[in-house]
Specification:
Order of helices and strands of chain A: EHEEEEEHEEEEEHEEEHEHEEE
Radius of gyration of chain B: 22 Å
Oligomer: heterodimer
Strand content of chain B: 25-35%
Number of strands of chain A: 18
Number of helices of chain B: 9
CATH architecture of the largest domain in chain A: Box
Number of strands of chain B: 23
Strand content of chain A: 35-45%
Structural class of chain B: alpha+beta
CATH class of one domain in chain B: Alpha Beta
Strand order of the largest sheet of chain A: 10-6-2-3-4-18-17-16-11
Mean pLDDT of chain A: 87
Chain lengths: 284, 426
C-alpha cells in the first residue's frame, strides 16, 4: 500500500485546506478513501455520530500536481484510512505560503500520513516542517461500510436559501431550542421552525426554486402526484444543521436539500471540484 | 520610592510574558532601573526582565534608609500577585491607543504600589495594589559557559513555534553543527497512534549567530517560552539561546540598551524509567508527582516559600498526588544545609560569574545552584522518571553579615531537583 502526492500551486493548496477545514468541522474522525482518480471523506451513519453521515468527493486532479497510489491489491486499488481531519487541517493551516506540500503514507512507529511543508526561508535551503498524522488502516472486510449512500426516494427537493442567511437564522434559533423543523414544498417555499414552551419562531423563505431532477430520479409518481403546496417536513437536531452551515468556508455553486418526510434530510453542496453530501436523520 | 512613566506595549507584554511563568512576581526597583522577576511553582522556569531607567520617560528612585547599612542599600523588593497587575495591562494594543501615560508609584510604608493610567479625554484609572515584602530572588546562570549559542530574530522563532499546536507542552531543540530542528517531544511510552508529531528543520544560515560546541537535544516547556516570544516581538530585539546538553538549563534572553530579559527554563534529561509509573509528559505534573513520591525525603528549606500549586495538572494521577505534597522537614540539621550550600556557593563563585565574584555581593544576593553540583542531594532522589536539572533559588536576607556561617533563607524547595542515581539506593 503506497501513497504519495504533491501540491505545488498555492491556489490549489488553499482550496484543499478549505475543504479539509470544512470536513474537520463536521466530523471528529472520518474515513479517507483514496483511489486512482478521487479522494473521498466518508462518515458513516453510526450511532456514535448521532446518525448523521457524510460523503465528500474530490477529484484529485483538481488539487494535486502529483498523485500516485497503490492499493492493497490490483483488483482493489483503493486505500481506506481512518483519521482525525482536525490534524490534517492543522498541518495545512501554517502552509499558507508554502512552496510545496507533500503528503505521503508512511509507517514509522505506526501508520501515518506525513505532511511535509516546504516553506520559503531567508537562507538558500528551505525550511521544512513535517507533521506526522497517525492514521488507522481500514481492513478490506470493512470496506462495505463505506459505500456511497443511496439517495432515498425523497418527497421534496429544493434549493437552499443563501447559506449565510440560513446560517445566521439557525444560529439564533440554536439558542432557543435543541431541534428545528425544516419543511419545504415543490413551489420553492421553505420554512425553518422552532417551537418551545415559551416561544415559537418561524422563518419563511420563498422563490427558492426546485431542482428538476425529481423526474429523472424514478420517484416520478410520487413527485408528480404530489400537491405543489404540500410541505414535507422533518425535525432534526439543530446543532448538526448549524455545524454543517458554519463549516462552509466558500459559497457553493449549488446547494440543495432533499426531504423525506419525518425520516431524513439530505443536503447536497456542490462546488466546482468538490461535492459534499450530508444526511441528517429526523428525530423520533 | 519609585515613580516612572513607561512604554506601555513593551511593559505590558513583559507582564504577560511573566504571567505565563507564575501567578506572582517580584517587583524590584533599584537605582539603575526596574527589575521584574518570577519563578514558577515547580522551580523549573525563571523569568527576569530589567528595564533600565532610560526606558522610562521619567524614573525616580530614592533609597529608603534602613538600620543596617553596610553596603549599597537595596530598597526592599516586594512581591506582587500578578493576577492583579494583568488587568492593568490587559489589552496592550488597545491601551496604546487610549492611554497617554502610565505612572507607577510605590509607597513602602503603605505597602502599596499604585499604577495610574492617564487616558484620553481626561480619564484617569488608578490601581492600588498591595505587595508583600519578601526576600530577594535572583537566579544566576553562567550563560557564557554554554557551549551552544544561537541568536536569531524573534520573528523566526515565532514562525517556528506557530507550527506546534497551542496545547503542545514540551518541545525538543536538537542541534548539530550542521542543522537545527525543533520537534514535538516524545518519550518511549508516547502513544504514537494518537499523537500528531511535528518537526521543523532550520538551516544554520538563518541564524544571526550559530555556535554549536556540542551536539545536544534539549527539551523544554514551550508554554513558558511563548510569553517571551511575544515580548521580544514587541521590542524587536533578537533572541539569544544559550544551552548545553540535555538536563542543563536553557536560557532565552534578549538584550538592548534600555532593557534586558532572560527566561531560564529547566530541561529534561531522560534516564532509565521507573517501570511502575505512568507519568504523563508534562513538567509541572511530573515534578509534583515525583515530589510527592519523595516527599518524605525532601530537604526542606526555611523561608517564606510560595506554595507549590501545580501549574497545570492534566492527569488525574498528578492531581491526587499534588494534594499531598507535605512540607516535610529534612532530616539533616540546618547547619549541614548551610554548610552544603556554602560549598555550592563557593562553586557558584568558582564558576566565574564575574558579576558575582565579589564576596560581599555574593553574600547578599541569592545563589543559583544547578543540582548536579550538589552531590549530596542525590541521597534523596531515587524515585523519579526523569532526571531534572533545574534552577535553585536561595534568598538571602540583606542583614546577613558573614558569608560562611549563616543559613540561607531559601525560597525554593529542593523537590524539583530529583536525580536518579540508580546505583545510590538508600
Amino acid at each position: 500500500m503506497r501513497f504519495r502526492a504533491k501540491i505545488v500551486d498555492l491556489a490549489c493548496l488553499n482550496h484543499f485546506s478549505r475543504v479539509i477545514n470544512t470536513i474537520a468541522k463536521l466530523a471528529k474522525t472520518c474515513t479517507l478513501c483514496l483511489t486512482d482518480s478521487k479522494l473521498y471523506f466518508i462518515l458513516s451513519d453510526k450511532v456514535a455520530n448521532g446518525g448523521v453521515s457524510m460523503w465528500c468527493e474530490l477529484c484529485q486532479g483538481n488539487f494535486f500536481d502529483e498523485f500516485q497510489m497503490e492499493g492493497v491489491a490490483a483488483e482493489h486499488n483503493e486505500i481506506y484510512l481512518e483519521l482525525v481531519p482536525e490534524n490534517l487541517s492543522r498541518a495545512l493551516k501554517t502552509a499558507q505560503s508554502a512552496k510545496a506540500v507533500k503528503i505521503k503514507l508512511t509507517n514509522k512507529h505506526c501508520p501515518c500520513l506525513r505532511v511535509a511543508v516546504e516553506l520559503p526561508s531567508l537562507s538558500s535551503s528551505s525550511r521544512i516542517v513535517t507533521h506526522d498524522i497517525p492514521v488507522g488502516v481500514v481492513p478490506r472486510r470493512l470496506w462495505n461500510d463505506f459505500r456511497e449512500p443511496s439517495v432515498p426516494d425523497f418527497d421534496v427537493s429544493i434549493y437552499l436559501p443563501v447559506l449565510k442567511t440560513m446560517k445566521s437564522v439557525v444560529e439564533r434559533m440554536k439558542n432557543l431550542s435543541n431541534s428545528i423543523v425544516i419543511e419545504a414544498n415543490l413551489s420553492g417555499e421553505m420554512n425553518l421552525k422552532i417551537e418551545t414552551d415559551l416561544v415559537s419562531v418561524t422563518t419563511h423563505f420563498k422563490d427558492l426554486g426546485n431542482p428538476a431532477w425529481a423526474s429523472e430520479h424514478g420517484c416520478q409518481s410520487s413527485a408528480q402526484g404530489r400537491d405543489l403546496e404540500s410541505m414535507a417536513e422533518a425535525r432534526i437536531d439543530i446543532k448538526k444543521l448549524q455545524q454543517l452551515l458554519a463549516g462552509q468556508q466558500v459559497n457553493p455553486t449549488k446547494a440543495l436539500c432533499n426531504i423525506l418526510s419525518k425520516r431524513i434530510v439530505h443536503f447536497i453542496l456542490l462546488h466546482e471540484d468538490v461535492s459534499l453530501q450530508y444526511f441528517i436523520p429526523a428525530l423520533a | 520610592i519609585l515613580h516612572c512613566f513607561l512604554f506601555l506595549l513593551v511593559f505590558g507584554r513583559a507582564i504577560h510574558a511573566i504571567a505565563r511563568i507564575s501567578d506572582e512576581f517580584w517587583f524590584d526597583p533599584v537605582e539603575k532601573g526596574l527589575a521584574l522577576r518570577s519563578v514558577n511553582s515547580s522551580r523549573s522556569a525563571y523569568a527576569y526582565v530589567f528595564f533600565s531607567s532610560m526606558f522610562f520617560q521619567h524614573y525616580c528612585w530614592t533609597a529608603v534608609s534602613q538600620p543596617c547599612q553596610k553596603e549599597k542599600q537595596l530598597s526592599l523588593p516586594c512581591k506582587l500577585i500578578i493576577k492583579s497587575v494583568l488587568p492593568v495591562f490587559r489589552s496592550v494594543n488597545v491601551l496604546e491607543r487610549n492611554v497617554e501615560k502610565c505612572s507607577i508609584y510605590t509607597n513602602i510604608n503603605d505597602h502599596h504600589i499604585t499604577f495610574q493610567l492617564l487616558c484620553k479625554h481626561g480619564v484617569v484609572k488608578t490601581y492600588n495594589l498591595t505587595f508583600q515584602e519578601c526576600d530577594p530572588l535572583q537566579a544566576v546562570f553562567a550563560k557564557h559557559m554554554c557551549p551552544n549559542i544561537l541568536k536569531v530574530h524573534s520573528r523566526l522563532l515565532a514562525d517556528t513555534m506557530i507550527h506546534f499546536p497551542t496545547s503542545q507542552e514540551e518541545v525538543t531543540l536538537s542541534v548539530t553543527p550542521l542543522k537545527v530542528c525543533f520537534k514535538s517531544y516524545t518519550e518511549e511510552d508516547t502513544d504514537f497512534s494518537k499523537t500528531m508529531l511535528t518537526e521543523i528543520q532550520l538551516n544554520p544560515e538563518e541564524f544571526d549567530y550559530f555556535q554549536v560546541g556540542v551536539d545536544s537535544e534539549v527539551t523544554f516547556c514551550l508554554k513558558e517560552l511563548r510569553g517571551l516570544l511575544a515580548f521580544s516581538e514587541a521590542t524587536s530585539v533578537p533572541v539569544s539561546i544559550h544551552f548545553d546538553v540535555s538536563g542543563k538549563p536553557v536560557a532565552f534572553s534578549i538584550e538592548d540598551t534600555v532593557l534586558e530579559a532572560s527566561f531560564i527554563l529547566a530541561t529534561l534529561c531522560g534516564i532509565e524509567k521507573e517501570t511502575a509509573s505512568q507519568q504523563p509528559p508534562c513538567f509541572s505534573q511530573r515534578q509534583e508527582s515525583n515530589a510527592a513520591a519523595v516527599a518524605s525525603k525532601k530537604p526542606q528549606w526555611n523561608g517564606n516559600a510560595p506554595n507549590t500549586e501545580p501549574a497545570k495538572p492534566a492527569s488525574p494521577l498528578a492531581k491526587q498526588e499534588v494534594k499531598n505534597i507535605p512540607r516535610v522537614r529534612e532530616r539533616e540539621v540546618p547547619g549541614t544545609e548551610g554548610a552544603a550550600l556554602t560549598e555550592a556557593e563557593d562553586y557558584a563563585m568558582l564558576e566565574g560569574e564575574a558579576a558575582e565574584s565579589h564576596s560581599q555581593k555574593v553574600r547578599r544576593l541569592p545563589v543559583v545552584l544547578t543540582v548536579e553540583n550538589l552531590g549530596w542531594f542525590s541521597y534523596f532522589y531515587k524515585y523519579c522518571i526523569f532526571q531534572f536539572h533545574s534552577l535553585f533559588f536561595g534568598a538571602v536576607s540583606c542583614t546577613e553579615k558573614d558569608a560562611i556561617s549563616h543559613t540561607f533563607h531559601s525560597l525554593a524547595t529542593a523537590s524539583d531537583t530529583e536525580e536518579d542515581f540508580g546505583s545510590s539506593q538508600v
